[in-house]
Amino acid sequence: MKIILGVGGGIAAYKSAELARLLMQQGHQVTAVMTDAAQRFVTPVTFAALTGRKVLTDLFAIESAIDHIGTAQENDLLVVAPATADLLARLAHGLAGDFLSTLYLAFTGPVLLAPSMNVNMWQHAATRANVEILERRGHRVIEPGVGYLACGMTGAGRMAEPEEIAAAVDREARAGRDLEGETVLITAGPTEEPLDPVRYISNRSSGKMGYALAEAAAARGAHVVLISGPVHLSPPHGVEVIQVRTAAEMRTRVFENLEPAGIVIKAAAVADFHLSHVPDQKRKKTAARLSLELDPTPDILAEVGRQKGDRLLVGFAAETENLRQEARRKLESKNCDMVVGNLVGGTETGFESDENEVVLVLSTGDTVEIARASKREIADRIFDEILKLRLSLHSAHEA
Ligand SMILES: Cc1cc2nc3c(=O)[nH]c(=O)nc-3n(C[C@H](O)[C@H](O)[C@H](O)COP(=O)(O)O)c2cc1C
After folding, report:
1. φ, ψ of residue 301 in degrees (nearest 5)
2. Which residues line ligand 1 (CB under 6 A)?
3. Residue whose CB lies within 8 A of the most ligand 1 atoms, among 42, 86, 102, for a mutation test
4. CA 390 to mean position of chain CA atoms
5. Is the pTM of this model over 0.85?
6. How far is ligand 1, taken at its centre, from the CA of residue 43, in Å?
7. 183-275+286-398 classified as CATH 3.40.50.10300
8. Which CATH number fits domain 2-174: 3.30.200.20, 3.40.50.80, 3.40.50.1950, 3.20.20.370?
9. Catalytic one of 151, 231, 242, 359
10. What is the pLDDT of residues 327-348, one digit of tens each?
């Protein structure tokens, strides 16, 4: 694959040299494009030596006969690492004052962005809005990790490791659209079970894992139907999103959309209990103790499991202890093909985090551990395993 490696002016520019080396090792042709600020951190000589190609830096150096339009047309993928706050803003708003941002506008292939910056810069409303624009445009943002930052602060903002970025590039190059022609049904987020017209019971699910799965499946060419409880996330690019509130609504929508789905992933944290008879009026505050009698909600996963047919069914088990045993028990009792077990309750992985660490329990008896990574990266690994599992189930069936 022919790759443009855009290097922005951040501390992590030195890590981008390692990324260039890894991409070369994977057999890609790499052309580095450096911003003026990037060259204050690392010299073009480093990238020229690693890639064996001229490094592009100057929009007006047209005497070299390598211009931004030609470069955009000749290459298959654009990776920007590190993507500075400034670059994210320029790319989001279509500014074209330098080689990299002008080339970006002329480029029509897939774009991967690996942001890196101070935690406050990353969390600033301006950066959040720019990232949202770029994601909506269908670009893949490789979430920065949490940890010690060069500025001395600790938090989110550290560029993903070169290995993780290279793996994302490799996947783009290798797998491409291996879910083309598939319909994937995914549920995500919590449900809200009303107690009266203004109160409800819910849980801490953020929906991030389900949304990451939807984004990954769409990027791999699937038609994705995402049935989502109430969350604060933007709909992933190219995904059909159906918003629901309660477990009962989620059940209805799942069965309405089940028929064409070949892969069903139930990542939603559906409430286990609800109030069957919700009062029409708000409950008044009194000094008396309030007891609520809750009834079980429908077990959507078990119901889908009973009428699974040829579908591949994936459940999620969010547990605070005995993860593997609980995941295995769920797999067997709900007739799933895979259960993704993740420990929740901590702060660094699980519900609200951008990262996760999971164990996949498979109906073949195998388990696969996926070490801590961004939820988007985990989502791709889950689809890799789903496709492998489906192949082995088919060949076992035919044998
Ligand atoms: C020492 C130093 C470190 C910096 N590190 C970062 C960084 O990690 N991320 C970032 O977004 N900006 C960082 N900046 C600010 C950018 O260099 C600055 O916004 C510049 O305009 C980015 O230009 P570019 O986006 O064209 O590369 C840093 C600046 C300095 C002086």
Report:
1. -60, -45
2. 8-12, 35, 37-38, 84-87, 116-117, 121
3. 86
4. 22
5. no
6. 15
7. yes
8. 3.40.50.1950
9. 151
10. 999 999 999 999 999 877 665 5
